[in-house]
């Protein structure tokens, strides 16, 4: 598995300053697992406060605009994320692709802007249930890899440094309680690795491939032990220390 396993919590549109207590508890526990890289991506409104509240884990944004500045009301640039304390950003999440009609080209532009600003990136890919049932799952995800990830000339140094990650999130498993069979996860992660090696050459082996889609304390150990799984992108289970920390523990070793 390239680099340390990477466990990232995506708070989505949840959270207030009162939740910083949960973040501090997660951070204290994360310090006991130095073999695991942990990060939380809160709403934009909490990034600065979270950065000040934690010391052991990373802080991420949930999206960024492809432009560095300009007349884009309501948007946040990658440079703004850096300025407020983020060190990584999630782009291309299926909820962004669906709810905001983001194309692969838009996701790629955002990812390249984030790298240029100095952020690490987590690029999300995944198929719908209809695409899987039609036997198109691997083809759909391969197309997203080919067209959503930064080009090799932009991403080369970042890939080598482990600052590029891919999150495979089958759309039908996000927030539904359904989890892909481990055999399907292994097969998809192998297919993703093949595309990464084609895109980046041998340094593509350094890109961690995370699994997302209803990851929780009950299934984390099995998923994280599967071949090719380099971590997890966690939604609802990342909102409390009680639910999130068993996932971190499943990824590494240390004092429980």
Q: Layout of SSEs?
A:
Layout (H helix, E strand, L loop, with lengths): L5 E5 L9 H11 L6 E5 L5 H7 L4 E4 L16 H7 L3 E4 L2 H6 L4 H14 L2 E6 L3 H5 L3 H12 L3 H9 L3 E5 L13 H19 L7 E5 L7 H5 L6 E4 L6 H11 L5
Helix pairs in contact: 1-11, 7-9
The major β-sheet equals: 8 strands, parallel, barrel
Shape: globular
Helix coverage percent: 40-55%
Alpha carbon gap, first and last residue: 23 Å
Number of helical runs?
11
* Strand-pairing-aware structural class: alpha/beta
> Using only CA atoms, what is the Rg?
17 Å
Arithmetic mean of pLDDT:
94
* Beta-strand residue fraction: 5-15%
Provide the spatial order of strands within the biggest beta sheet. 1-2-3-4-5-6-7-8
The SSE order reads EHEHEHEHHEHHHEHEHEH
Low-confidence spans? none
Q: How many beta-strand segments?
A: 8
Describe the structure in your own words:
This protein has 256 residues and is of the alpha/beta class. Helices cover 41% and strands 15% of the residues. It has helices at 20-30, 47-53, 78-84, 94-99, 104-117, 129-133, 137-148, 152-160, 182-200, 220-224, 241-251; strands spanning 6-10, 37-41, 58-61, 88-91, 120-125, 164-168, 208-212, 231-234. The chain has an eight-stranded parallel beta barrel, surrounded by eight helices. Helix 1 (20-30) packs parallel to helix 11 (241-251) and helix 7 (137-148) runs parallel beside helix 9 (182-200). The chain starts with 5 loop residues before the first strand and ends in a 5-residue tail after the last helix.
């Amino acid at each position: 598995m390239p680099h340390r396993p990477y466990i990232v919590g995506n708070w989505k549109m949840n959270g207030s300053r009162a939740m910083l207590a949960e973040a501090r508890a997660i951070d204290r526990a994360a310090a006991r697992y130095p073999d695991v890289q942990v990060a939380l991506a809160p709403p934009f409104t909490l990034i600065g406060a979270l950065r000040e509240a934690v010391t052991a884990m990373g802080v991420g944004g949930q999206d960024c605009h492809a432009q560095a500045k300009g007349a884009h009301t309501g948007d946040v640039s990658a440079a703004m994320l850096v300025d407020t304390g983020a060190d990584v950003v999630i782009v291309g999440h299926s909820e962004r692709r669906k709810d905001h009609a983001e194309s692969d080209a838009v996701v790629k532009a955002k990812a390249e802007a984030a790298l240029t600003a100095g952020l690490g990136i987590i690029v999300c890919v995944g198929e719908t249930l209809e695409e899987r049932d039609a036997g198109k799952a691997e083809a759909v995800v391969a197309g997203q890899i080919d067209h959503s990830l930064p080009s090799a000339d932009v991403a080369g140094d970042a890939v080598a440094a482990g600052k590029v990650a891919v999150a495979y999130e089958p759309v039908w498993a996000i927030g539904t309680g359904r989890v892909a069979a481990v055999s399907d996860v292994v097969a998809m992660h192998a297919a993703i690795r093949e595309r990464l090696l084609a895109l980046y050459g041998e340094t593509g082996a350094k890109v961690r491939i995370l699994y997302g889609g209803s990851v929780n304390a009950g299934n984390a150990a099995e998923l994280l032990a599967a071949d090719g799984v380099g971590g997890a992108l966690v939604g609802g289970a990342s909102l409390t220390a009680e639910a999130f920390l068993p996932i971190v523990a499943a990824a590494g070793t240390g004092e429980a």
